[in-house]
């Protein structure tokens, strides 16, 4: 049942509370080890292999070995991870090996979609954020190096960093809704904690159901715009 005096705005505020709480609780310190299943690369030199992308050593790096414009790094993510930020750790020892323009693709392995293209500042030789604030789990993230500086052929990366959390794996309990936790959510103040808990369970259940059918509803092709408007 709908609690007495409850409105759509209350649901929105409760949703914001759950989202904020889940991020604080579920962010992982070492997201590479925790959330990354494996890494593939387009090519590599014998002494500059893919393992150097995650060894956290400042003097090692991965170097590609192939034609320009054909270099990529593919991240296979563990089921249920949502990426908040993805960084490239650049190797500035030689300018022609530094990426100038990269594109990020994500999705199912056989159905990757373009997410973002980034033009890296010419003065950047440190960590560069190339993706942020994903809202859903993406099984694969593919970083395509479209161009290096000074028309360079191969690319060097010192590593990658990921900030991510598990997909809505929030364990709900009534203790979450104590008054001290609700200071920033005025519409929820004064509502019984048990009522908030039961409403939160309902919202979480709705989210799971919606996510399970969302890929049937949202068209992938731009040609389906009319259909999408009708569904909306």
Automatic annotation (TrEMBL):
Residues 9-189 form the DOC domain. Keywords: Ligase. The keyword Ligase applies. Gene3D superfamilies: Galactose-binding domain-like (2.60.120.260). PROSITE patterns: DOC. It holds the Pfam family ANAPC10. The keyword Transport does not apply. This is HECD3 ligase. The lineage of its organism: Eukaryota, Metazoa, Chordata, Craniata, Vertebrata.
């Amino acid at each position: 049942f709908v609690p007495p005096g409850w409105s759509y705005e209350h649901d929105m505020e409760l949703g914001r509370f759950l989202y904020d709480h889940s991020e604080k609780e579920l962010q992982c310190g070492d997201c590479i080890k925790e959330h990354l299943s494996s890494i593939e690369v387009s090519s590599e030199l014998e002494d500059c292999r893919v393992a150097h992308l995650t060894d956290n050593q400042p003097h090692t790096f991965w170097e590609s070995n192939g034609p320009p414009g054909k270099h990529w790094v593919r991240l296979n993510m563990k089921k249920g991870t949502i990426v908040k930020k993805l960084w490239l750790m650049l190797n500035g020892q030689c300018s022609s090996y530094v990426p100038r323009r990269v594109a990020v693709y994500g999705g199912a392995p056989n159905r990757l979609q373009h997410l973002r293209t980034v033009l890296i500042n010419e003065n950047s030789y440190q960590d560069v954020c190339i993706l942020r604030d994903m809202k859903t789990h993406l099984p694969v993230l593919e970083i395509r190096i479209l161009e290096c500086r000074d028309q360079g052929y191969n690319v060097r990366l010192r590593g990658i960093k990921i900030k991510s959390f598990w997909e809505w794996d929030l364990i709900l309990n009534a203790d979450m809704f104590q008054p001290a936790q609700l200071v920033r959510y005025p519409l929820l103040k004064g509502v019984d904690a048990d009522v908030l808990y039961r409403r939160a369970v309902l919202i979480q259940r709705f989210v799971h159901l919606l996510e399970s059918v969302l890929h049937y509803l949202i068209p992938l092709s731009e040609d389906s715009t009319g259909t999408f408007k009708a569904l909306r």
